[in-house]
Specification:
mainly beta, five-stranded antiparallel β-sheet, four-stranded antiparallel β-sheet, about 5% helix
């Protein structure tokens, strides 16, 4: 017999019935001196708990900060990765940090490469070998030298001291504008972005530089996962006919294979929707989760497969049964023997951070809203999640009681 529990969300005045044996509940973590700023991200650090990053700004100086939390949500450390006055700070193109197999931390932020180029910025990468006490000098994974866009980065551990990075790259805009002007802006729609990757080791060597796809959507988030012996990337593709569906590529034996469309949604849109996919692996199974538009309304879709190769055989596509209109901005993580999905919806005519649990067989059960941030539009950002398999954490931007921008944090209990 299934057990049912009543859960009261006192801050929202809502009472709902959920299944206690499958869908987790989230509890808000009230940190003393809540982190101020925006663009949060979070990862798991084996043996320690969680590692969160976010950006804050004071006058014209932006800083990228880190904080460690144990599995109970208690703060165990905090510091600053870097700061600067020429950074590119954007609601959708956000910094991140990854913990490598040897324990190194690798983080990145975005830095403008020309004051006359509003869309020209580079990826700046640093490494800490002592859990955030000191950081290396910044470097870039791309070596094209063009004053164009390099962003929407994904990073995963590539074994030992190596990190595999991928990003959207606008260098083709410089080629198209050569001879026309000394300061070529990147027209996102006339000159397609490319998807590229590289591997960086502790010594700063850049190897295995690849162009994964020569025509992608311009500003949708990418995501990567390690699945068995392979690594995969998901992203929003772009055809000559402006169909912008989700594609996946497999990185195996040190090289990328040809990308494949996950599902032919046939979403035709003339501009970038700024709404990318997410991927997660849990043992033998993996999941891809993405937003799309069908019949002129936003829907959230996912596929579950038993192996990376099974994704290429077009597994059954499923649509989340939602009662609230979604905005997308999705994430996906492994949890227990299935997956947790998060996204932004429009609850009660205001944004909410929502989630659902996907069983190993693909069945889905929705949970309650994690939070209803007092923010609207782009300011609601992109909630991000991480899990050690038993405990999950979600972080998001919100406003405190005084109207200040802070980072909200919630854990499964």
């Amino acid at each position: 017999m299934r057990k049912w529990i009543w859960v009261l969300l006192s801050s929202f005045g809502l009472v709902a019935l959920v299944r206690a044996d499958s869908v987790p509940t989230f509890s808000r973590i009230l940190l003393q001196d809540a982190p101020s700023g925006g663009q949060p991200n979070v990862v798991t650090e084996r043996g320690h708990g969680f590692l969160m990053t976010w950006q804050s700004m004071r006058q014209d100086v932006t800083s990228l900060n880190w904080m460690t939390l144990d599995l109970e949500g208690r703060r165990t450390g905090q510091g600053v990765i870097s700061k600067g006055s020429n950074w590119f700070v954007n609601w959708a193109d956000i910094p991140a940090l990854v913990v490598l197999d040897n324990g190194d931390w690798v983080a990145f932020w975005l830095e403008r490469n020309d004051p006359d180029m509003p869309e020209g910025y580079d990826i700046r990468v640093v490494r800490s070998i002592d859990r955030g006490k000191t950081w290396s000098s910044p470097m870039s994974p791309h070596r094209d030298g063009t004053k164009t866009q390099h962003g929407f980065v994904s990073m995963i551990a590539d074994g030992e001291d190596r990190v595999l990075m991928s990003w959207l790259d606008g260098r083709r805009a410089a080629d198209a504008a050569a001879g026309a002007t000394s300061h070529a802006t990147h027209d996102h729609e006339s000159v397609p972005m490319t998807l590229r990757s590289a591997v960086i080791d502790r010594a700063g060597n850049i190897t295995r530089e690849y162009e994964i796809d020569n025509r992608t959507c311009s500003c949708c988030q990418t995501d990567m996962a390690r699945w068995n012996e392979q690594k995969l990337i998901v992203y929003r593709d772009r055809t000559e006919a402006e169909i912008r569906d989700i594609s996946v590529a497999i990185y195996s034996l040190g090289r990328w294979e040809a990308p494949s469309v996950v599902h032919h949604d046939q979403w035709k849109i003339e501009g970038c929707p700024v709404n990318g996919p997410a991927i997660a692996a849990n043992g033998e199974r993996g999941l891809i989760f993405w937003p799309t538009v069908t019949d002129e309304k936003m829907t959230l879709r996912y596929v579950v497969a038993d192996s990376p190769r099974a994704l290429l055989d077009k597994p059954q596509m499923r649509t989340l049964p939602l009662t609230q209109v979604p905005s997308g901005r999705v994430d996906a993580i492994a949890w227990q023997d299935g997956f947790l999905l998060t996204w932004i919806s429009r609850a009660r005519d205001r944004p909410a951070v929502d989630y659902a649990y996907v069983h190993p067989d693909g069945r889905v059960e929705a949970g309650l809203s994690i939070a209803e941030p007092a923010l609207r539009g782009r300011a609601t950002g992109f909630p991000r999640a991480a899990s050690d398999g038993k405990t999950a954490i979600v972080v998001w931007p919100e406003l405190d009681g005084n109207g200040n921008a802070v980072i909200g944090v919630a854990l499964t209990r």
